[in-house]
UniProtKB/TrEMBL annotation:
Species of the source: Leminorella richardii
PROSITE patterns, per the entry: HTH_LACI_2
Keyword line: DNA-binding, Transcription, Transcription regulation
Name of the protein in question: Catabolite control protein
Keyword Signal: no
Matches recorded under SMART domains: HTH_LACI (SM00354)
Length: 339
């Protein structure tokens, strides 16, 4: 009967093949701490190739004090914005010789906690983290001594390192763009009210209306999940009452779900209802109609996040990035409309 589990090749096997000691093999593999004669080094390398030896990553991590891995914890990889951010972080980590381990919480706070514990147990060199409900497990990570960077807004009192876009300012600009079209009745589809980023986005929408001396109609605030289904359901509720003239959706997925609900009721965008959204990706450009959207600079943010982990000094830092409002067809810029 064939052996289904062949014995793992060890450093002792390499040493025997090379005719040297295990310590010398270790010096060659770890490039120190003691020098090895070139001829001996070559014999060890030839023996490694012949035996098929693969260094034990865990043992090397214990010896070097680094695992060459980072952990990334995000609410839901199905969100196009989060997947584009994860992709950029992975590419940037690779450029720095690091492997990025993804933890997808699936919008579940308990799973998020389990992922954090799992990654900390693996002794990752650092964590990149955005919480399901923006109430992160900061104390747990701090107690481990692991460097970490929050990828969104957190309570300033927590005094942690974070990168972010000013979401209140972004919501203000998106709403102001609708106002500049001449629209006066502007609703908002937002996330769950208890989330900090939802509060920021509602505040920006409200501030834009108040600055323009337009009414803020509480009945035109439609909280829902940051999903296509959530956008569909919120738009369906909106369609039960008086239709606003314009709408700010605080997430690209919500906007896409909203468009489906509007289409089913034959409400034309932008002719009857203008629409802008936050956290757009390339998906917004290829939708019909294309979505006017606020886009975050994910590549620049990823580059900064990885550099901050590599140069970690445990001094809290907030790095804020600018955003862009990319014009599509959904707001009416490309169509002549009556207000």
């Amino acid at each position: 009967m064939l052996n289904q589990h062949p014995r793992r090749v060890t450093r002792a096997d390499v040493a025997k093949e090379a005719g040297t000691s295990v310590a010398v093999v270790s010096y060659v593999i770890n490039n120190g701490p003691r020098p090895v004669a070139e001829a001996t080094r070559q014999r060890v390398l030839d023996a490694i190739k012949k035996t098929g030896y693969r260094p034990n990553g865990i043992a090397r991590a214990l010896a070097s004090g680094t695992t060459r891995t980072y952990g990334l914890i995000i609410p839901n990889i199905a969100n196009p914005f989060l997947s584009s951010l994860a992709h950029s972080l992975q590419q940037e980590a690779f450029e720095h010789g690091q492997v990025l381990l993804l933890g997808d919480a699936g919008d579940n706070r308990q799973r998020e906690l389990e992922l954090i514990n799992n990654l900390l147990h693996r002794q990752v060199d650092g964590l990149l983290y955005t919480s399901v409900d923006r109430h992160p497990y900061i104390e747990l990570i701090q107690a481990s001594g692991t460097p970490f960077i929050m990828l969104d807004r957190v309570d300033p009192a927590l005094n942690v390192t974070a990168i972010r876009v000013d979401e209140r300012a972004a919501a203000f600009q998106a709403t102001r763009h609708l106002i500049e079209h001449g629209y006066r009745d502007i609703a908002i589809i937002c996330g769950p009210r208890e989330m900090l980023n939802t509060q920021d986005r509602i505040s920006g929408w409200r501030e834009a209306l108040q600055t323009a001396k337009l009414p803020v109609r509480e009945e035109w605030i439609f909280p829902t999940t940051y999903t296509r289904e959530g956008g569909y359901q919120a738009a369906s509720r909106m369609l039960e009452g008086r239709l606003p003239r314009a709408l700010f959706a605080t997430n690209e997925l919500q906007a896409l779900g909203c468009l489906r609900a509007l289409s089913e009721r034959d409400v034309k965008v932008p002719e009857e209802l203008a629409l802008v959204c936050f956290n757009g990706t390339v998906e917004s450009e290829f939708n019909v109609p294309s979505l006017t959207h606020v886009r975050q600079p994910v590549k620049a943010m990823a580059k900064a996040a990885i550099e901050m982990l590599k140069n970690w000094n445990d001094t809290p830092e907030l790095r804020e990035f600018s955003f862009d409002l990319l014009i599509g067809e959904s707001c009416g810029c490309c169509t002549k409309l009556t207000k």
